[in-house]
Design a protein that fits this description.
Layout (H helix, E strand, L loop, with lengths): L3 E5 L6 H13 L4 E5 L9 H11 L3 H4 L13 E4 L13 E4 L10 H23 L6
Parallel strand pairs: 1-2, 1-3, 3-4
Helix pairs in contact: 1-2, 1-4, 2-4
Length: 136
């Protein structure tokens, strides 16, 4: 059975949504991707939606929405996006913090940079799961 990975931050509107989309794109055969937060936004960050569509041809507006932690199933791995204040807690077998800055309100360059970092980290996570480097 594939492990379930949750990408979490406070609002579940930008970084965690990008990570969910890229997890589905690059890791579909290795793990199931979810994202959630302690608060929701009425819509996903539209700059994030546009950048992910431009670079990866994935339309997050069609496939994703802002969700609370209790809206997703129990997970094996929790990835915190980087919360400067207080990160939500979700029980899991493995947890890590990717420490990403929130690009909300910043330039497209910042969104692109964030997307590329997430892509690299998702691919790295795939390798670590494949190599049994993460205790599940």
């Amino acid at each position: 059975m594939k492990p379930k990975v949750a990408f979490i931050c406070v609002h579940n509107s930008c970084r965690s949504q990008m990570a969910e989309a890229l997890g589905r794109l690059f890791a579909l055969d290795i793990f199931d991707s979810y994202s959630a937060g302690t608060e929701t936004k009425p819509e996903i960050n539209q700059d994030a939606v546009r950048i992910i569509k431009d670079i990866y041809d994935v339309d997050m507006n069609k496939t994703q929405k802002s969700k609370l932690l209790n809206d997703i199933p129990e997970v094996d791995i929790v990835i915190k996006m980087g919360c400067n204040v207080v990160c939500p807690f979700l029980p899991s077998k493995h947890e890590e913090d990717w420490g990403l800055e929130d690009p909300t309100g910043k330039s497209d360059e910042e969104f692109i940079k964030t997307a590329k970092i997430i892509e690299d980290k998702v691919k790295n996570l795939v390798e670590r799961i494949k190599n049994n480097e993460i205790e599940l």
